[in-house]
Design brief:
Structural class: alpha+beta
Number of strands: 6
Strand content: 15-25%
Helix content: 25-40%
Largest sheet: 3 strands, antiparallel
Radius of gyration: 20 Å
Distance between the termini: 54 Å
Shape: globular
Number of domains: 1
């Protein structure tokens, strides 16, 4: 199964890219639609355990930690980490496709851009060489 997230209209859609597109619409059926995404993974190995709706993922993580602690595996229970929010789609897809990538994502989490906004600076349509500077900022400089 080749899962992939796409951002459409401010929501995250999860698609199985192995399924063929509809003959009528030309689009694939989505498996999940959510406003924010959560991923649960093992911090020591970066292995992805679960991904999807944040409420479901938090619930899964609490249950998994409880079972591991009951079995005496305190270290394994403490290794489960849940990250949720508007994460960049390309980073989410790397977590799905690359083993251990969640660990790298976690290390760079503070420097990642907001997942739902365009991260490129606005450039004026009249000049393509410099980013647009608002009038107040230009006057103050």
């Amino acid at each position: 199964m080749a899962l992939q997230y796409q951002l459409k209209g401010g929501s995250y859609y999860l698609y199985d890219m192995d399924t063929p597109p509809s003959a009528v619409t030309g689009e694939r059926r989505f498996r999940l639609k959510t406003d924010t995404v959560a991923i649960a993974f093992d911090i020591s190995t970066g292995e992805l355990h679960q991904h999807g709706n944040p409420i479901r993922i938090q619930s899964w993580a609490m249950g998994a930690r409880r079972k591991l602690r009951a079995a005496g595996a305190q270290d394994y229970a403490n290794d489960i980490v849940v990250v949720s929010g508007p994460l960049p789609v390309d980073e989410l897809n790397k977590c799905l496709g690359i083993d251990g990538y969640c660990r790298r994502l976690f290390a760079r989490l503070a420097s990642l851009p907001h997942g739902k906004f365009n991260t490129k600076p606005y450039t004026s349509p009249f000049t393509h060489s410099k980013p647009y500077t608002p009038y107040k900022a230009a006057a103050a400089a």
